[in-house]
Amino acid sequence: MPEMPRLERALPPTALASGVALAAVAGLGGAPAAIAATLAQPAFALAVARRRGVPAATAWPRHALGLVVLWVASAVLFAALVAWPFSSLLEGGSLGAALAASLAFGIALIAAWRVWPLWQGMARSGGHASDHWRELARVDTGDWRGLGAALAVVLLAALPLLLAWPGLLGSGLRWGIALASIVVAPLLHGLLQRIPPPQPLAGGWPALVGEDGDEADDVEGDALAPGETPETALYAAARNGRVDRALALLEAGADAAATPPSDSRDQRSLPVLSAVLPDLRLLRALIGRGVDLNAMYAGMTPLLAATRDSWHGRPEAVMTLLANGADPRVRDLEGNT
Q1: Measuring CA to CA, which residue among 80, 73, 98 is closest to residue 88?
Q2: pLDDT tens digits for range 194-236
Q3: pLDDT digits (tens, 9 = 90+) for 20-78
Q4: Cβ distance 73 to 55 under 8 Å?
Q5: Do 330 and 298 meet the contact criterion of CB atoms below 8 Å apart?
Q6: For residue 76, what is the enclosing H or E element?
Q7: DSSP β-bridge partners for residue 126
Q8: Which of helix, strand or coil describes residue 226?
Q9: 62, 9 in Cβ contact below 8 A?
Q10: Burial (CB count within 10 angstroms: exposed 0-12, middle 13-18, buried 19+), residue 94
Protein backbone atom coordinates (compact mmCIF):
# COMPACT_ATOMS: atom_id res chain seq x y z
CA MET A 1 0.00 0.00 0.00
CA PRO A 2 2.23 2.87 -1.21
CA GLU A 3 -0.32 5.51 -0.20
CA MET A 4 0.34 5.04 3.52
CA PRO A 5 4.02 6.07 3.53
CA ARG A 6 3.26 9.13 1.42
CA LEU A 7 0.39 10.07 3.71
CA GLU A 8 2.49 9.60 6.82
CA ARG A 9 5.31 11.64 5.30
CA ALA A 10 2.96 14.49 4.39
CA LEU A 11 0.99 14.49 7.65
CA PRO A 12 3.44 16.29 10.02
CA PRO A 13 4.04 19.29 7.72
CA THR A 14 0.35 19.44 6.84
CA ALA A 15 -0.68 19.43 10.49
CA LEU A 16 2.01 21.99 11.31
CA ALA A 17 0.90 24.25 8.47
CA SER A 18 -2.70 24.00 9.69
CA GLY A 19 -1.60 24.96 13.20
CA VAL A 20 0.40 27.91 11.91
CA ALA A 21 -2.54 29.17 9.83
CA LEU A 22 -4.96 28.83 12.72
CA ALA A 23 -2.58 30.55 15.14
CA ALA A 24 -2.23 33.44 12.70
CA VAL A 25 -6.02 33.77 12.34
CA ALA A 26 -6.22 34.05 16.14
CA GLY A 27 -4.73 37.54 15.80
CA LEU A 28 -8.12 38.75 14.55
CA GLY A 29 -9.52 38.63 18.08
CA GLY A 30 -13.07 37.86 19.17
CA ALA A 31 -14.81 34.58 18.33
CA PRO A 32 -12.44 33.79 15.42
CA ALA A 33 -9.52 33.98 17.82
CA ALA A 34 -11.17 31.67 20.33
CA ILE A 35 -11.94 29.06 17.68
CA ALA A 36 -8.66 29.33 15.80
CA ALA A 37 -6.39 29.36 18.87
CA THR A 38 -8.22 26.33 20.28
CA LEU A 39 -8.04 24.29 17.07
CA ALA A 40 -4.39 25.20 16.56
CA GLN A 41 -3.45 23.12 19.62
CA PRO A 42 -4.57 19.70 18.32
CA ALA A 43 -2.92 20.52 14.98
CA PHE A 44 0.39 21.31 16.68
CA ALA A 45 0.08 18.28 18.97
CA LEU A 46 -0.55 15.99 16.00
CA ALA A 47 2.37 17.47 14.07
CA VAL A 48 4.77 16.93 16.98
CA ALA A 49 3.52 13.39 17.63
CA ARG A 50 3.82 12.38 13.98
CA ARG A 51 7.24 13.95 13.74
CA ARG A 52 8.25 11.68 16.61
CA GLY A 53 6.94 8.69 14.66
CA VAL A 54 3.90 7.70 16.73
CA PRO A 55 1.38 6.20 16.40
CA ALA A 56 0.68 4.18 13.24
CA ALA A 57 -0.36 5.92 10.04
CA THR A 58 -3.76 4.22 9.85
CA ALA A 59 -4.78 5.73 13.20
CA TRP A 60 -4.33 9.40 12.35
CA PRO A 61 -7.99 10.42 11.73
CA ARG A 62 -9.13 9.17 15.13
CA HIS A 63 -5.94 10.46 16.70
CA ALA A 64 -6.71 13.92 15.32
CA LEU A 65 -10.36 13.77 16.39
CA GLY A 66 -9.42 12.73 19.91
CA LEU A 67 -7.00 15.64 20.20
CA VAL A 68 -9.61 18.10 18.92
CA VAL A 69 -12.14 16.95 21.52
CA LEU A 70 -9.54 17.08 24.29
CA TRP A 71 -8.29 20.58 23.54
CA VAL A 72 -11.73 22.04 22.90
CA ALA A 73 -12.87 20.64 26.25
CA SER A 74 -9.72 22.02 27.91
CA ALA A 75 -10.28 25.53 26.55
CA VAL A 76 -13.97 25.51 27.49
CA LEU A 77 -13.34 24.27 31.03
CA PHE A 78 -10.57 26.80 31.59
CA ALA A 79 -12.76 29.64 30.33
CA ALA A 80 -15.65 28.52 32.54
CA LEU A 81 -13.37 28.45 35.58
CA VAL A 82 -11.59 31.80 35.21
CA ALA A 83 -13.97 33.96 33.14
CA TRP A 84 -16.06 35.33 36.03
CA PRO A 85 -13.20 36.20 38.45
CA PHE A 86 -11.13 37.57 35.58
CA SER A 87 -14.04 39.73 34.43
CA SER A 88 -14.52 41.03 37.97
CA LEU A 89 -10.82 41.84 38.19
CA LEU A 90 -10.92 43.84 34.96
CA GLU A 91 -14.08 45.74 35.93
CA GLY A 92 -13.30 46.58 39.55
CA GLY A 93 -9.68 45.81 40.18
CA SER A 94 -10.44 45.00 43.81
CA LEU A 95 -8.24 42.83 46.00
CA GLY A 96 -11.02 40.26 46.29
CA ALA A 97 -11.30 39.96 42.52
CA ALA A 98 -7.53 39.62 42.22
CA LEU A 99 -7.49 36.87 44.82
CA ALA A 100 -10.40 35.09 43.12
CA ALA A 101 -8.67 35.23 39.74
CA SER A 102 -5.44 33.92 41.24
CA LEU A 103 -7.33 31.15 42.99
CA ALA A 104 -9.10 30.14 39.78
CA PHE A 105 -5.80 29.99 37.90
CA GLY A 106 -4.24 27.98 40.73
CA ILE A 107 -7.14 25.51 40.71
CA ALA A 108 -6.76 25.09 36.96
CA LEU A 109 -3.02 24.45 37.34
CA ILE A 110 -3.47 21.92 40.16
CA ALA A 111 -6.25 20.13 38.27
CA ALA A 112 -4.08 19.90 35.16
CA TRP A 113 -1.20 18.63 37.30
CA ARG A 114 -3.33 15.78 38.65
CA VAL A 115 -4.34 14.62 35.17
CA TRP A 116 -1.37 15.67 33.01
CA PRO A 117 -0.76 12.09 31.70
CA LEU A 118 -4.14 12.35 29.97
CA TRP A 119 -2.86 15.06 27.60
CA GLN A 120 0.46 13.32 27.15
CA GLY A 121 -1.11 9.93 26.47
CA MET A 122 -3.63 11.30 23.99
CA ALA A 123 -0.90 13.18 22.12
CA ARG A 124 1.68 10.40 22.10
CA SER A 125 -0.47 7.36 21.39
CA GLY A 126 -4.04 8.47 20.68
CA GLY A 127 -6.71 6.00 21.74
CA HIS A 128 -9.77 6.62 23.87
CA ALA A 129 -9.60 9.38 26.48
CA SER A 130 -11.48 7.06 28.84
CA ASP A 131 -8.61 4.57 28.71
CA HIS A 132 -6.07 7.23 29.62
CA TRP A 133 -8.41 8.51 32.33
CA ARG A 134 -8.64 5.08 33.97
CA GLU A 135 -4.87 4.78 33.84
CA LEU A 136 -4.54 7.87 36.05
CA ALA A 137 -5.51 5.80 39.08
CA ARG A 138 -2.55 3.50 38.49
CA VAL A 139 0.30 6.00 38.12
CA ASP A 140 2.00 8.65 40.23
CA THR A 141 0.52 11.82 38.77
CA GLY A 142 1.99 13.95 41.55
CA ASP A 143 5.53 13.70 40.21
CA TRP A 144 7.13 17.16 40.10
CA ARG A 145 7.89 16.89 36.40
CA GLY A 146 4.14 16.82 35.88
CA LEU A 147 3.96 20.41 37.11
CA GLY A 148 5.83 21.57 34.01
CA ALA A 149 3.47 19.57 31.82
CA ALA A 150 0.47 21.06 33.63
CA LEU A 151 1.79 24.59 33.20
CA ALA A 152 2.18 23.98 29.46
CA VAL A 153 -1.41 22.70 29.27
CA VAL A 154 -2.83 25.64 31.21
CA LEU A 155 -0.95 28.22 29.13
CA LEU A 156 -2.16 26.64 25.89
CA ALA A 157 -5.73 26.38 27.19
CA ALA A 158 -5.63 30.03 28.34
CA LEU A 159 -4.46 31.34 24.97
CA PRO A 160 -7.93 31.36 23.28
CA LEU A 161 -9.46 33.27 26.18
CA LEU A 162 -6.60 35.77 26.24
CA LEU A 163 -6.81 36.52 22.52
CA ALA A 164 -10.62 36.55 22.32
CA TRP A 165 -11.43 38.69 25.37
CA PRO A 166 -13.01 41.96 24.12
CA GLY A 167 -10.86 45.01 24.71
CA LEU A 168 -8.21 43.19 26.75
CA LEU A 169 -5.36 43.53 24.28
CA GLY A 170 -4.55 46.17 21.74
CA SER A 171 -4.41 45.11 18.12
CA GLY A 172 -0.63 45.16 17.95
CA LEU A 173 -0.14 43.16 21.15
CA ARG A 174 -2.83 40.67 20.16
CA TRP A 175 -1.19 40.03 16.80
CA GLY A 176 2.20 39.78 18.47
CA ILE A 177 0.98 37.10 20.91
CA ALA A 178 -0.80 35.21 18.13
CA LEU A 179 2.32 35.17 15.95
CA ALA A 180 4.55 34.29 18.90
CA SER A 181 2.32 31.29 19.61
CA ILE A 182 3.33 29.88 16.21
CA VAL A 183 6.77 29.25 17.72
CA VAL A 184 5.94 28.80 21.40
CA ALA A 185 2.98 26.42 21.10
CA PRO A 186 4.83 23.66 19.18
CA LEU A 187 7.68 23.93 21.70
CA LEU A 188 5.24 23.48 24.59
CA HIS A 189 3.63 20.49 22.87
CA GLY A 190 7.08 19.01 22.30
CA LEU A 191 7.92 19.49 25.98
CA LEU A 192 4.66 17.86 27.02
CA GLN A 193 5.26 14.82 24.83
CA ARG A 194 8.94 14.42 25.71
CA ILE A 195 8.48 14.37 29.49
CA PRO A 196 8.94 10.78 30.73
CA PRO A 197 5.58 9.18 31.56
CA PRO A 198 4.66 8.82 35.25
CA GLN A 199 5.76 5.78 37.18
CA PRO A 200 3.20 3.15 38.26
CA LEU A 201 2.08 3.26 41.86
CA ALA A 202 4.00 0.73 43.92
CA GLY A 203 2.55 -2.04 45.99
CA GLY A 204 -0.87 -3.43 46.72
CA TRP A 205 -1.72 -4.62 43.21
CA PRO A 206 -3.53 -7.90 42.59
CA ALA A 207 -1.52 -10.83 41.32
CA LEU A 208 -1.49 -11.73 37.66
CA VAL A 209 -3.44 -14.63 36.31
CA GLY A 210 -1.19 -17.19 34.69
CA GLU A 211 -1.96 -19.26 31.61
CA ASP A 212 -3.27 -22.10 33.78
CA GLY A 213 -5.79 -19.82 35.44
CA ASP A 214 -4.00 -19.77 38.80
CA GLU A 215 -2.71 -16.58 40.31
CA ALA A 216 1.01 -16.09 39.86
CA ASP A 217 2.81 -15.82 43.18
CA ASP A 218 4.82 -12.72 44.10
CA VAL A 219 4.25 -11.01 40.77
CA GLU A 220 3.61 -7.27 40.76
CA GLY A 221 0.92 -6.05 38.38
CA ASP A 222 -2.80 -5.90 37.68
CA ALA A 223 -5.12 -8.83 37.31
CA LEU A 224 -6.16 -9.44 33.74
CA ALA A 225 -9.51 -7.91 32.90
CA PRO A 226 -12.29 -10.26 31.80
CA GLY A 227 -11.59 -11.31 28.23
CA GLU A 228 -8.15 -9.67 28.22
CA THR A 229 -5.25 -11.78 26.99
CA PRO A 230 -1.73 -11.53 28.44
CA GLU A 231 -0.53 -10.18 25.08
CA THR A 232 -3.15 -7.41 25.02
CA ALA A 233 -2.23 -6.47 28.57
CA LEU A 234 1.46 -6.58 27.63
CA TYR A 235 0.95 -4.07 24.82
CA ALA A 236 -1.12 -1.81 27.07
CA ALA A 237 1.64 -1.83 29.69
CA ALA A 238 4.34 -1.07 27.12
CA ARG A 239 2.36 1.83 25.62
CA ASN A 240 1.89 3.39 29.05
CA GLY A 241 5.49 2.96 30.16
CA ARG A 242 4.64 0.44 32.87
CA VAL A 243 7.79 -1.60 32.58
CA ASP A 244 7.35 -3.61 35.80
CA ARG A 245 3.88 -4.61 34.68
CA ALA A 246 5.18 -5.64 31.24
CA LEU A 247 8.02 -7.67 32.74
CA ALA A 248 5.60 -9.40 35.07
CA LEU A 249 3.38 -10.32 32.13
CA LEU A 250 6.34 -11.77 30.25
CA GLU A 251 7.24 -13.86 33.28
CA ALA A 252 3.62 -14.99 33.52
CA GLY A 253 3.77 -16.34 29.95
CA ALA A 254 2.85 -13.47 27.62
CA ASP A 255 4.24 -14.00 24.12
CA ALA A 256 7.16 -11.62 23.49
CA ALA A 257 6.77 -12.09 19.73
CA ALA A 258 3.06 -11.22 19.63
CA THR A 259 1.99 -8.61 17.10
CA PRO A 260 -0.18 -5.63 18.12
CA PRO A 261 -3.89 -6.37 18.60
CA SER A 262 -5.62 -5.94 15.26
CA ASP A 263 -8.23 -3.57 16.72
CA SER A 264 -5.64 -1.28 18.31
CA ARG A 265 -5.12 2.19 16.89
CA ASP A 266 -1.45 2.04 17.84
CA GLN A 267 0.17 -0.55 15.59
CA ARG A 268 3.75 -0.21 16.84
CA SER A 269 5.29 -3.58 17.63
CA LEU A 270 6.45 -4.50 21.13
CA PRO A 271 10.18 -4.09 20.30
CA VAL A 272 9.45 -0.64 18.83
CA LEU A 273 7.51 0.40 21.93
CA SER A 274 10.26 -0.81 24.23
CA ALA A 275 12.94 0.99 22.20
CA VAL A 276 11.44 4.42 22.94
CA LEU A 277 10.91 3.90 26.68
CA PRO A 278 13.31 5.64 29.09
CA ASP A 279 13.59 2.35 31.02
CA LEU A 280 15.41 -0.23 28.85
CA ARG A 281 14.60 -3.26 30.98
CA LEU A 282 11.72 -4.28 28.74
CA LEU A 283 13.88 -3.99 25.62
CA ARG A 284 16.58 -6.14 27.23
CA ALA A 285 13.99 -8.69 28.31
CA LEU A 286 12.67 -8.96 24.76
CA ILE A 287 16.20 -9.34 23.41
CA GLY A 288 16.78 -12.09 25.94
CA ARG A 289 13.72 -13.86 24.61
CA GLY A 290 15.07 -13.76 21.07
CA VAL A 291 12.79 -11.21 19.39
CA ASP A 292 13.79 -10.21 15.86
CA LEU A 293 15.22 -6.70 16.15
CA ASN A 294 15.21 -6.22 12.38
CA ALA A 295 11.59 -7.18 11.83
CA MET A 296 9.61 -4.29 10.36
CA TYR A 297 6.02 -3.77 11.43
CA ALA A 298 3.82 -0.89 10.21
CA GLY A 299 6.88 0.53 8.46
CA MET A 300 9.03 0.78 11.58
CA THR A 301 11.87 -1.16 13.21
CA PRO A 302 13.10 -0.69 16.80
CA LEU A 303 16.32 0.96 15.62
CA LEU A 304 14.48 3.43 13.40
CA ALA A 305 12.12 4.28 16.26
CA ALA A 306 14.99 4.80 18.73
CA THR A 307 16.88 7.11 16.37
CA ARG A 308 13.80 9.18 15.57
CA ASP A 309 12.31 9.48 19.05
CA SER A 310 12.41 13.17 20.06
CA TRP A 311 14.90 15.50 18.45
CA HIS A 312 17.90 13.82 20.03
CA GLY A 313 17.03 10.15 19.70
CA ARG A 314 17.68 7.59 22.40
CA PRO A 315 21.41 6.80 22.30
CA GLU A 316 21.28 4.14 25.03
CA ALA A 317 18.54 2.26 23.19
CA VAL A 318 20.40 2.64 19.88
CA MET A 319 23.62 1.23 21.35
CA THR A 320 21.72 -1.64 22.98
CA LEU A 321 20.04 -2.52 19.70
CA LEU A 322 23.24 -2.31 17.66
CA ALA A 323 25.10 -4.44 20.21
CA ASN A 324 22.46 -7.13 19.89
CA GLY A 325 22.25 -7.42 16.11
CA ALA A 326 20.07 -4.55 14.89
CA ASP A 327 21.04 -3.81 11.30
CA PRO A 328 21.38 -0.05 10.53
CA ARG A 329 21.05 -0.85 6.81
CA VAL A 330 17.39 -1.85 7.16
CA ARG A 331 15.22 0.80 5.49
CA ASP A 332 11.70 1.89 6.26
CA LEU A 333 8.92 1.90 3.68
CA GLU A 334 10.00 5.37 2.52
CA GLY A 335 13.54 4.18 1.79
CA ASN A 336 15.08 6.00 4.77
CA THR A 337 17.71 4.39 7.00
Answers
A1: 98
A2: 888 777 654 333 334 333 333 333 344 456 766 678 888 899 8
A3: 999 999 999 999 999 999 999 999 998 888 777 654 443 578 888 889 999 999 999 99
A4: no
A5: no
A6: helix 60-92
A7: none
A8: coil
A9: no
A10: exposed
